[in-house]
Design goal:
The chain has 15 helices and twelve strands. By secondary structure, it is α/β, with parallel strands linked by helices. It folds into two domains: 193 residues, Spore Coat Polysaccharide Biosynthesis Protein SpsA, Chain A (Alpha-Beta Complex); 153 residues, Hypothetical protein af1432 (Orthogonal Bundle), CATH 1.10.3210.10.
Length: 368
């Protein structure tokens, strides 16, 4: 039997009593929380999607109206979440090999996270896969079907978490740069925080730090990236013409992550691919041009140009005047005409960007 026959059990039966609003119907963009979760699992190719309903269950069914989703009514939902786990697990199709448990109040898990959890399960001999962020486990766990009977026969003391803790030797924690796996919405304040996070177009500072860890970025490269990010924001803040179109959080993340895989071949594009797969296309585009760029002197300054210049002005974690940086770089490649031509062209682009920035009445003594 194929191990990739996977299901998800979405738990959507509770009262939402602390929220004072019905959690499944809270909006994220044009979709409700329940629709957002369903769409995420569908796009990740999860074969069987089960939604366990209880309180206002008929409204949920009518709201979703998706023939690819199976709804299970949990008559025992007043007894708590574990009763919904039991109802969902008991309804799994016989051919299902593994299943996610996904509460509706943790609704904005990213597609790439589901894909990565699934990949680790398929490549591992472990029966329980826990996603984690900064060392803390989150949702959704992926559980092998060998635990179905254990779950159904468990009396529920301590819930599913307590049961799974008994089988730590069969568990695998995987680090994800996805803070949303820990972000629930028990209260109105939680929901507001989730909305702010949902509308971010860049990974958070914590997620950038976790990406450093996941890709084993050496300390010297981390220091360089932090300095480049700081300088990029300084250049942005001191620019005298219109920069209202530039998102500071996007620029900062691009600065922090531009060299995340510096040791790999074609690292600019490789880094951009990583961020694009995470859904951060603007960050990815800025990273993709930090090595080579074409500058249009007649257009407003772009975040790509700001990062490009900041990277050229920072050697390791020190700001060095552009002329000195160019001379030092050319010394390294003396005798290689192709390399020398590329270096000269890159620094010509940096000079054009400096002219566009117009800092300190057109002069940039710190950087020249």
């Amino acid at each position: 039997m194929k191990k990739d026959n996977l299901a998800v059990i979405i738990l959507s039966a509770g009262y939402s009593s602390r929220m004072h609003r019905f959690k499944p119907f809270l909006k994220f963009g044009k979709y409700t929380a329940i629709e957002k979760l369903i769409n995420t699992y569908k796009s990740s190719g999860i074969e069987e999607i089960i939604v366990v309903v209880g309180h206002r269950g008929q409204e949920v069914i009518e709201k979703v109206q998706d023939n690819k989703v199976r709804f299970i009514y949990n008559k025992d939902y007043p007894k708590g979440m574990y009763s919904s786990v039991l109802a969902g697990v008991n309804s799994l199709s016989p051919h299902i090999q593994g299943f996610f448990i996904s509460p509706v109040d943790i609704p904005i898990i990213k597609n790439h996270s589901i894909d990565y959890i699934k990949k680790e399960y398929l490549n591992s001999t472990k029966g329980i896969i826990h996603p984690s962020f900064c060392g803390k486990r989150g949702h959704p766990p992926l559980i092998d079907n060998k635990y179905i009977d254990l779950i159904l026969n468990n009396h529920g003391e301590g819930g599913l978490k307590r049961l799974l803790q008994k089988y730590e030797e069969d568990a695998l924690d995987i680090a994800l740069a996805d803070e949303s796996i820990l972000m629930d919405m028990d209260t109105e304040a939680d929901y507001i925080r989730l909305l702010e996070y949902y509308h971010m177009k860049a990974p958070s500072s914590g997620e950038c730090g976790e990406l450093f860890n996941i890709y084993n970025v050496p300390d010297n490269i981390k220091r360089h990236c932090i300095k480049v990010a700081d300088l990029a924001l300084e250049l942005l803040d001191n620019h005298q013409t219109n920069t209202g179109h530039i998102n500071r959080k996007v620029l900062k993340a691009a600065g922090l992550l531009h060299d995340i895989v510096r040791k790999e071949r074609n690292h600019a594009q490789r880094g951009a691919d990583i961020l694009s797969k995470m859904g951060y296309d603007e960050v990815a585009h800025i990273i993709s041009t930090h090595m080579d760029i074409r500058v249009d002197e007649n257009q407003d300054i772009t975040p790509n140009e700001i990062l490009y210049l900041a990277d050229k002005l920072v050697k390791e974690d020190r700001i060095v005047p552009l002329k000195i940086r160019m001379e030092e770089t050319m010394e390294l490649y003396g005798g290689n005409k192709e390399a020398m031509d590329n270096i000269q062209n890159r620094y010509k682009m940096a000079e054009k960007i400096m002219k566009k920035l117009k800092i300190n009445n057109g002069k940039m003594p710190i950087y020249e």
